[in-house]
Amino acid sequence: MIDFTKMHGNGNDFILINEFETKKVVEENKSEFAKKYCDRKFGIGADGVLFLQPSREYDFKMRIFNSDGTEANMCGNGIRCIAKFALDQEITQKSKLAIETNSGPLNVETRENKKFWAKVNMGKPQFKRNKIPAKGEGTFLEQKIDQYSVSAVNTGVPHAVIFRKNINNLDIEKEAPKIRYNEKFPEGANVNYVKVLNENKIKVRTYERGIESETLSCGTGSVASAAISKKLDKTKGNTINVITKGGKLNIIFKNQEAYMEGPAKTVFKGKTSKQFSIVE
């Protein structure tokens, strides 16, 4: 049996496995583990699995496997969850953390006043096509794909951003794959549909690569949507409030870097059944 903790950041939910001292799932089984246990009918149910592991240079390392078994480089909502878990379990007692990810180390500041909040330095949004990645040269701003005007940026993972006057009635499961799998994005892209509410507030719906569905919230997607909004002068100022189906995030821009601030919550803890376990 394997101990797990179910957590979420604005409804973007995860199964967290603590491997800080002992490896619980062997490397070759991690992908299959995520596919089996993320299943919402036959497993625990989640958008992905977070593995908290030791790091040689930083406080600890975060790895994330999506519900389809693919490993992602980063997850904005996930990194807030793993920071909360580390503090709750006294893996660290520091309020300022440096967490290793496959996209590089990220600095996280935490605070708790009735509820847990974390502010994550998401780094500098990458607009160049070779950094997204996207085919061609220069930036990828307001490019025509299908009937949409599409912009793209990398905020830890690649994101496409599309502005619409109405995103509530959008059939995202039908429309997003046209962009997500477009040949212009050799590694695919997450797809964000954005409605500008005012000069410092946007509403976002995100279709996530690797989950292949809409999620209630996406941290890197919220940063990407805010970054593109600012780049195209659709919003003003350095703080943008992002409204997702799962809740609110604050995206702050300072010295060309983006900071994401939001909550994380523990839902429950449990153990996998021995019969269902696929680990050695």
Automatic annotation (TrEMBL):
InterPro entries: DAP_epimerase_AS (IPR018510), DAP_epimerase_DapF (IPR001653). The record marks H159, E208 as: Could be important to modulate the pK values of the two catalytic cysteine residues. It catalyses: (2S,6S)-2,6-diaminopimelate = meso-2,6-diaminopimelate. It comes from the Archaea. The keyword Transcription regulation does not apply. GO terms for molecular function: diaminopimelate epimerase activity. Keywords: Amino-acid biosynthesis, Cytoplasm, Isomerase, Lysine biosynthesis. GO terms for biological process: lysine biosynthetic process via diaminopimelate. The active site is at C75, C75 (proton donor), C218 (proton acceptor). Belongs to the diaminopimelate epimerase family. Catalyzes the stereoinversion of LL-2,6-diaminopimelate (L,L-DAP) to meso-diaminopimelate (meso-DAP), a precursor of L-lysine. This is Diaminopimelate epimerase. It comes from Methanohalarchaeum thermophilum.
